[in-house]
Amino acid sequence: LLQGPTVKRKQNLPNRKILQRLLSYSNNNNNNNMDSRVTLDVVSSPPSSNTPTTPPKQQGDGGAGEGLTARAQKMVMQSPLRKGLSRLRRRRARSAPPALRTPMIEQHFRVDPDRRVLLPGVPKHDDDWARDSHDFFNLVVLVPIIALNVMNWDWEKVFNVFEKGGAIEDAWTGEWFEPFFFTVLSYFVVDLLWILLIPRCVKSPSTIYQHHIVTMLYILVPWYRPHLRWGMGACMSVELNTWFLIARRVFNKQGFPPWIIDLSFVSIRVKLISIGFYVTWIGIRCIVYPIMLVYLMKRWWRESLRVGTSFNIELINPVMQSSFCILNLKWTYDLIMSKLRYYKRKSKGKEYAPSKGL
User: Fold this and answer.
1) How far apart are CA 204 and CA 175, in angstroms?
2) Any residues with CB less than 8 A from the CB of 25 and at least 6 apart, and which?
3) What 8-state DSSP symbol labels residue 299?
4) Which of 190, 233, 257, 320 is the residue whose CA sits 20 to 30 A from 225?
5) Along the 358 residues of the chain, how does pLDDT read in single tens digits?
6) Is the bond leading into 97 cis (omega within 30 degrees of zero)?
């Protein structure tokens, strides 16, 4: 009869004594400075064979032991380290694996990992079947998209807008809009499925997922609102910059600096691609997209006054356009700040001098 309670007490008392010590340690430090690592290590350690079998002194009534145990367990479960690990696991579960998350700047520019400054030249790329086949697909498919976009504009009127002023939407003919629309939609669907099946073909698959899904939703607006179809043509002109961005990597895998004075065929090709990349980046991402945002906000405001509420279908356009403008602004800011840090270090006579530029 006496053996049963004794065995049970041997199994339970060590854990209760450890928890009592934790509570005493916490009270001595005013419950503010408990080291979560010590807490986790003590709780996870197995009970020692030297643990005394006599029950600890209890304070107050007979229910104090149960309250003590519950309180100490609650402190352990709410420790800062445990909370941090839980948040980290949730964040990792909602995003791509760490190996697949790479900043956009590091994908297309050489960046010093320690000082976060741009280095001369472009990144060197080894042969990678998954990435190379995806790049080749984009270089081929983007050509008809760009060509169909060009065919939907009256370029004499486009140049007159810049020379004499006027409305850019008047230069949109829309004669090839349906082939243009379905080619664009097919491209984004195929490219999205490609990245879903082979995510290692790009360095930031989660960003591409979000971009493609938002874009496919965005192009539905001009399909149902014909007066905004010219806006799709203006926004899809950014694919020209995307083509130069990919060509910059594909045709310069050796990472040659494009501004070295060398009249070889490789040097001329690299220079032309780099010039096209920077011109279209500034002209389309930094100028055309913000102008489009201002225009769409004005249209939304006029529609709000007409229907008597700001929540109307025209609201979709400035919201979507602003998201792309913010993304372009972030990429441009990262690029400019990295270049400024590089030239600042160069002016102080530190590493990487003399620079040969990008």
Assistant:
1) 36
2) 34
3) H
4) 190
5) 344 444 444 444 445 656 566 566 555 554 444 444 444 444 444 444 444 444 444 444 444 445 555 555 555 555 665 666 666 555 544 544 444 445 555 555 556 666 555 555 555 555 688 999 999 999 999 999 999 999 999 999 998 887 877 788 899 999 999 999 999 999 999 999 999 999 999 988 998 999 999 999 999 999 999 999 999 999 999 999 999 999 988 887 766 666 665 656 666 778 889 899 999 999 999 999 999 999 999 999 999 999 999 998 889 999 999 999 998 999 899 888 877 877 777 776 655 433 333 3
6) no
**Which helix H or strand E contains 300, and what residues bound it?**
helix 289-307
The rounded distance, in Å, linking the Cα atoms of 10 and 22 is 20
Q: Whats the size of the chain, residue-wise? A: 358
Q: Scanning the structure block, which residue is given the tokens 């082939």? A: 179
DSSP 249-283: HHTTTT---TTS---SHHHHHHHHHHHHHHHHIII
Q: What gap in Å lies between CA 121 and CA 263, rounded to an integer?
A: 17
Query: For every residue of 69-118, which 3-state class applies, written as one string?
Result: HHHHHHHHHCCHHHHHHHHHHHHHHHCCCHHHCCCHHHHHCCECCCCCCE
